[in-house]
Write a structure and sequence with these properties.
The complex is a heterodimer of chains A (284) and B (345). With 284 residues, chain A is an alpha/beta fold. Chain A has 10 helices and 12 strands. Chain A has a domain of 185 residues: P-loop containing nucleotide triphosphate hydrolases (Rossmann fold, 3-Layer(aba) Sandwich). In chain A, 40% of the residues are buried. Chain B has a single domain, classed as ABC transporter involved in vitamin B12 uptake, BtuC (Orthogonal Bundle), CATH 1.10.3470. A two-stranded antiparallel sheet of chain B has the order 1-2. Classes of the chains: A alpha/beta (284), B mainly alpha (345).
Chain lengths: 284, 345
Amino acid sequence: MSTTPTTARSPVEMARAAGDTRLSVEQVSYAHSANPSQAPLFTLEATSFQAKPGEIVAILGPNASGKSTLLKLISGALAPLSGRILLDGFATNVLTPRTRAQRIAVVQQESPLLFPARAWQFVLQGRHAYGRSLRFESADDLQIAKNALAQVGAKELTDRWMEQLSGGEKQRVILARALAQQPLLLLLDEPTLHLDIAAQIGLLDVLRRLAAENRYTVVVVTHELNLAAEYADQVVLLQRGRCLRVGPPAGIYQRDLLEQVFQTPLSVEFTSSGRPRVAILPGS
Amino acid sequence: MRPLTLRRLVLQCSLLMAILFVVMVIALKFGAVPVSLYALGRDLLHVLIGQSSQISSDYGLIVINIRLPRILLGIIVGASLSVAGTSFQALLRNPLADPYVLGVSSGAALGAILALIAEPHLALAPEYAALLTPLGAFLGAIGTIAVVYLLGVREGQIDSSTLLLGGVITSSFLAAIIMFLMNTLSGNLRGFTYWVMGDLSTAPQKGVYWILVVGFFVAAGAIYTLASDLNLLLSGEKEAMHLGVDVPRVRLVVYVAASLLTGLAVSVSGAIGYIGLIVPHLMRFLFGSDHRVLIPTAALGGAIAVVFADTLARTVLAPNEIAVGAVTAVVGAPLFVYLLRRRLR
């Protein structure tokens, strides 16, 4: 295992050295192959971006562009082939699972629950990394779980069974569990998938408010062009494992570029707020 | 919110301990030879104060020397199988996982038989010889779960139906080998029914009880320290990892410990089926699926279930006995079908 020299320095020192940057993705690449002797099935070429506390970054691209792989690399679940990913100066893939869970929370497509659980039990799972393995939840843990549910506007769901919640309600409870981890970095993989438009907007509004109030750095994987345009401070545009552009949506939402990446005719307008808006042009 | 407290846990366990006590009294009283409660109490008292010679009733010796050891054996076997089942269900994310259904019990039985065959040729000191059968059973159990796991993995993911089929196939394959060994070798091997159906009628030597008790507390204790991790594993391995669970370490510890529990139980009682299926489901229904509660209640519930089933096995056709595994299978197999249908819906 290669440890970067930076892991030896204290986080405070590193944060200072890095200025205001919390997440730093530096020339990160990855290759996935079914077995080591074969040519890789999928590669992610060198990708770099930085994010500050309170910022929302959208990783955007069509299917199989490497969005989820990049998110897994950032979460530390995968180790990069080259380059490094630093969170407050620490490489994310060398942290212990416990330390990682105290700093990085991941909201992903959930596996179905095997046995029923209530929403509050589910949210309390977020406190796991803070306790010894066999113990009873402290009053603090309960308060933090309550606050997390309140923050996502899901207080009234506290005693409901998870399996009886609607898609949007469930996604809020999953987000509350992530908040209960008290992370620095919040990673979301297609959080609006399967949600109706009101639930999508509701979730992203909550996310924007949380990022601003609690200074979370948020990274969202999505292929919803307009939601990314509206909510993201930065967009990382990927296509077939290559990072094409990084920057604010206004600079990246160019008609030719998006048409080429998403392989479909589009038009781009700018709203009065200065955010781009994409319309599809079917059959042309 | 109604979080788990130590008080509630102790209360639930005390309730089960009381039930276990009642079942033990029933098991002592009933059998081919009935004993009055008064004589039973008097004889047990004499044993407790160390005056076994004072045992008065004609049947006192039956109760103390035959029924009591058998009941203690049932308690430890039941607790072991039930905790093993609970662990396999969490690890494999499969509510139908059970040491018997997965073929782990058959693997342990084969391991124990091979150890019994090898024992005379090894010239071990008696204290080590007593360890050989449980060790063989443990190795048989852990080898089988590894094979069944590999059979059940497709493209890096456990496929639950394939896993169960793999268990059933492995189990019948191992039963065939056991049958073969039974017919080609004789000696101090107990019968085919003993190993494949399970039987508590032959009490082991005193030293073996200590191996069982220490083994149970070490293995079940190791699993219990990971109770919260198992709760998170139920949400999926990826999720558990992101919530701070060291998934490979938890998996290793729990697989080894659950195999040890299965091996210990099978080495002294053969493959009693479905305890690891029936009891954890009943306890989940009664007390919820939090492993901090589920593991101790499943242990007590398993003890109750096996002692009760064995009492039925002794008394229903008295003076003939049926294998205790036949009693548990009569209850367990329909439950398995019910759970399978519910899951497929």
